[in-house]
Specification:
Helix 4 links the parallel strand 4 and strand 5 (96-100). This protein folds into 2 domains: 5-125, Probable inorganic polyphosphate/atp-NAD kinase, domain 1 (Rossmann fold, 3-Layer(aba) Sandwich), CATH 3.40.50.10330; 134-269, Sandwich (Tumour Suppressor Smad4), CATH 2.60.200.30. The protein contains 7 helices and 18 strands. The relative contact order is 0.15. By secondary structure, it is α/β, with parallel strands linked by helices. Its EC number is 2.7.1.23. Its main location: cytoplasm.
């Protein structure tokens, strides 16, 4: 596993990535940048993020340049913002710190109203570090790869909104698993188990678990249930029947597929490193985001 830039050397250059054109985000970005500069760090803004703020003397870098030059990246926004930059920075193993200015915040876990004291502690070395797996996938047509991408959450093969059910033939490690008629199939990482896969009835997977969840979307046969596979598995999904079938990666990259195209999914060799405040716990995140700490009151309302 590649070494973590954040822990292996003093932090010198920190990139700031923000949700593009988000209302009011410029103030947060400026506050973070000023804090970092005053603490003796070099600051760089991601090129789209720079459009939201007066960058001053800070560098403006592409995601690839951030990967090559930054020791860490602070991501301000929601989980979608984190997904987008994490997929691009994964090959460079730049550790990511997430500040939540979105709605849910499974991955951007630091509240924006507490970000300054938390960042001060983290940059002083008071951190928890964890690594998350990714998936890579490709579309094969007549045995030739025509599309490739990576996913942090999930790879989803699904029917068009106006089409009937899709019929998919699934193999795992060269072994026939089943023919499935459904609205589609989700192949999710442990991180993605709290996203679309969860809404489709899939299981929660701890991010430290080496597994891949395969979750059918509205299957025709109720016996088609979610299954967790080893993360060493190679999954091949052949489109047997259906119209307007697409494959998407984290709902950010899409490709249209035809009958008898195969979508091949496996674990990526890259990982994403998250940095959290000292004392962070995945179970704390689940309790907060899934409201496990709330109980019905006598009036039937959550409290």
């Amino acid at each position: 596993m590649p070494s973590n830039k954040f822990s292996s050397s003093p932090v010198k250059t920190i990139a700031i990535v923000g949700k593009p054109m988000a209302a009011g985000i410029g103030d947060s970005l400026t506050e973070i940048a000023n804090f970092l500069v005053n603490a003796g760090h070099k600051v760089a803004f991601e090129v789209e993020t720079a459009k939201n703020v007066n960058v001053g003397n800070a560098a403006v870098l592409s995601p690839e340049q951030i990967g090559q030059q930054a020791d860490a990246a602070i991501v301000v926004g929601g989980d979608g913002t984190m997904l987008g930059i994490a997929r691009q920075l994964a090959p460079f193993n730049v550790p990511l710190i997430g500040i939540n200015q979105g709605r849910l915040g499974f991955m951007t876990d630091i509240p924006v109203d507490r970000m300054m004291p938390v960042l001060a502690d983290m940059l002083a070395g008071k951190i928890e570090s964890e690594q998350r797996s990714l998936l890579e996938g490709e579309v094969l047509r007549d045995g030739v790869s025509i599309f490739q991408s990576v996913a942090f959450n999930d790879v989803v093969v699904s029917r068009g909104s106006g089409a009937g059910m899709a019929e998919l033939r699934v193999q795992v490690d060269g072994h026939f698993m089943y023919n499935q008629r459904s609205d589609g199939l989700i192949v999710a990482t442990p991180t993605g188990s709290t996203a679309y896969a969860l809404s489709a009835g899939g299981p929660l997977l701890h991010p430290g678990l080496g597994g891949i969840a395969m979750v059918p979307i509205a299957p025709h046969a109720l016996s088609n249930r979610p299954i967790v596979l080893p993360d060493s598995s190679e999954i091949v999904i052949e489109v047997v029947n259906g119209r307007d079938i697409t494959v998407n990666f984290d709902m950010q990259t899409f490709a249209s597929v035809q009958l008898h195209d195969c979508v091949v999914v496996r674990r990526s060799r890259h990982v994403v490193t998250f940095l959290h405040p000292l004392g962070w716990s995945y179970f704390n995140t689940l309790r907060e985001k899934l409201h496990w700490h709330e109980y019905p009151s006598a009036e039937g309302k959550l409290k």
